[in-house]
Amino acid sequence: MSDKPSDDQPSASEIPDDVWEQFTRDTERDIRGSAPKEPSARARMVTERLRRQEERGESPPAWRTGPESPEVNGRAGRRRTLWAVLGVPLAVAVALVALKPSLLPGDPFGRDESRAAPSAPPTAPDPEIPTLDEPFAGSPALHWADGEAGIVLPEAKAVGPVSRDRVEQALKLTKKLLVAANLDPETVRGERPEAALSVLDPKQPKLLDDLNTALRSPSGKHDPLTMFSRFDPDEIRPVGDVIKTRGRMTFEKGSHAGVAVRADYTFVYPVMRADGSTEVTRTIVRRVLDVELADPVRYRVTQGRLTVRTYDEEIGNSSCDVHDGYLHPEFPSSENKGTDPTGPTTDPYDRSRSLDEGHACGTVTRT
């Protein structure tokens, strides 16, 4: 046999000193323990007595086997009991996660978009149709987070001279704006979105003037849907109290000595008619906001308020060219009451593409 070590075995020079020393001590101990020893006089007497008993056939049965150790039995028993106690809750937890993956934070199955932008649209939907009991059946949003839980803030870090606390404040204000403009029940049922307006800087008068005009007298030029998700309560009612949400938020150094935040989120609203019909449909709204928390020392801005740089939206499944300030979902059983679509056909769940300019009234491939 060759004394050359094989390639997959470490050489002595590759073994850390403390490991090698421990190995040496253990080896010496084992050698001392296994070395033959001269039996004592008592041992020789016992051995001789047992030999004679064996010759006479008087050896006690199973004398070479000892009783089981109570300590071993007890330890094994406790291990089995512990597994029985922990196993049931663990099985229940696994079953719950299998039925509703969104119970786990952060979307551990790779569907979370809060850290990286999507590179492709979701897979094709199931052929199921939405119902009062399952309003998200057949929709990719079935596995999205519920409402505010879908707006996950990135970890705040200082950007240039802007402190971490300042960045965190900007992120929280952006989330507050998104929630108040798209998830707040009062806003969704068509009431004035006071909480959302309170986040915006009053020293940016053009924006607030336009939004107030849109809320007071909506038109094609001044449309509140560019910033707020609203349904006419006399026409539409929500199905359940869950709005599905998915998107991501990023930040960078702003142009006004502050921090600039970009928010790109999609909201899915299951709705029904207010006339008592049980037919369910969904409207999908995607919003892209660019806001900044500017430095109030260097610029004429309000402390703790956001300046909106740009905002854009895309609405899936709402009648075209109806400018009364409300979303008007179309149901499969009803005819289109708005203008016929003239724009492209798009998938409202495809978050891998940028929003098209022009806001042409198009057709959605699914709701």
TrEMBL record:
<feature type="compositionally biased region" description="Basic and acidic residues">
    <location>
        <begin position="348"/>
        <end position="359"/>
    </location>
</feature>
<keyword id="KW-1133">Transmembrane helix</keyword>
<feature type="transmembrane region" description="Helical">
    <location>
        <begin position="81"/>
        <end position="99"/>
    </location>
</feature>
<feature type="compositionally biased region" description="Basic and acidic residues">
    <location>
        <begin position="39"/>
        <end position="58"/>
    </location>
</feature>
<keyword id="KW-0812">Transmembrane</keyword>
<protein>
    <submittedName>
        <fullName>Uncharacterized protein</fullName>
    </submittedName>
</protein>
<feature type="region of interest" description="Disordered">
    <location>
        <begin position="1"/>
        <end position="75"/>
    </location>
</feature>
<feature type="region of interest" description="Disordered">
    <location>
        <begin position="109"/>
        <end position="132"/>
    </location>
</feature>
<feature type="region of interest" description="Disordered">
    <location>
        <begin position="327"/>
        <end position="367"/>
    </location>
</feature>
<keyword id="KW-0472">Membrane</keyword>
<feature type="compositionally biased region" description="Pro residues">
    <location>
        <begin position="119"/>
        <end position="128"/>
    </location>
</feature>
<feature type="compositionally biased region" description="Basic and acidic residues">
    <location>
        <begin position="23"/>
        <end position="32"/>
    </location>
</feature>
